[in-house]
Every structure is written in C-alpha cells, then in structure tokens.
Design brief:
about 130 residues, alpha+beta, four-stranded antiparallel β-sheet, 4 strands
C-alpha cells in the first residue's frame, strides 16, 4: 500500500531496440551479452523506472527515475542505483471538480503576446 491505497509495484527498464532508436549516434550502449552500459548514456537519462500504480484506478502515485551505478563509480556495487527524479502524488482525487479560478492569470502591467495561432499553423504545416 502507498498512502493507504493498494498499489502494484512495477520495475521497468529499457528495451534495447527502443533505446537504440532514441540514441542512434551512441555506440556501445550494450555489451556482447546485451547488458546496458550506463556509462554510455547521457547523464540525465535513467536506465530504469520504479512505479507504484493504484490497483483499482491504475493511477501512478509514485514514479522514481533511477540510474544504475557502474562498478567503481562512487564506490557502489554494480547493482546499486540512485534516484534521479522522484514524483509522489498525494491526496489524489480522480473526477473531482476543478475550480476554474485556479487557472486565472493576472500578469499586472506585463504585456501578453499570444502566439498560439501562429504556432499551431506552423505545426500543421509540417504534417
């Protein structure tokens, strides 16, 4: 349980073909046995994610992006990992009404320039 909510604990890692597609210029991501060489990853990229997902609502209450430490890195063992970013969502209310005044912008004397239409036209032109 997490915050008194029954959850599933899920540990995820990269599929080699998906990671290779994401980083096509990176060579040596995997060794001959197919194990990921985390030293070849960009520093900010995790090699695994740990999730706590609600059993009833499948909502991700806890998301932890982790990075495995290579042997000799920081004196850690090969399987040790550290958290890069953790998100925990508390007091989740699914389907609850949202007060629209929570999203009102009062910029004061700042002049606002809305380029939404131009941006959308540019994106639509790329398709």
């Amino acid at each position: 349980t997490f915050q008194e909510v029954p959850v599933w604990a899920i540990a995820c890692h990269w599929k080699p073909d998906r990671l290779a597609a994401l980083l096509p210029k990176r060579k040596g991501l995997f060794d001959q046995r197919g194990r990921l060489n985390t030293e070849r990853l960009p520093d900010q990229l995790p090699d695994r994610v740990f999730l706590l997902v609600g059993r009833d609502d499948l909502f991700p209450y806890h998301i932890d992006f982790r990075r495995t430490q290579s042997e000799g890195q920081g004196g850690k063992s090969k399987d040790a990992s550290q958290s890069l970013v953790t998100m925990e969502l508390f007091e989740v209310q699914i389907g609850a009404p949202i007060d629209p005044t929570s999203f009102v912008c009062r910029p004061g004397d700042i002049e606002i320039q809305d380029w939404t239409d131009e941006y959308l036209a540019k994106i639509r032109g790329r398709r």
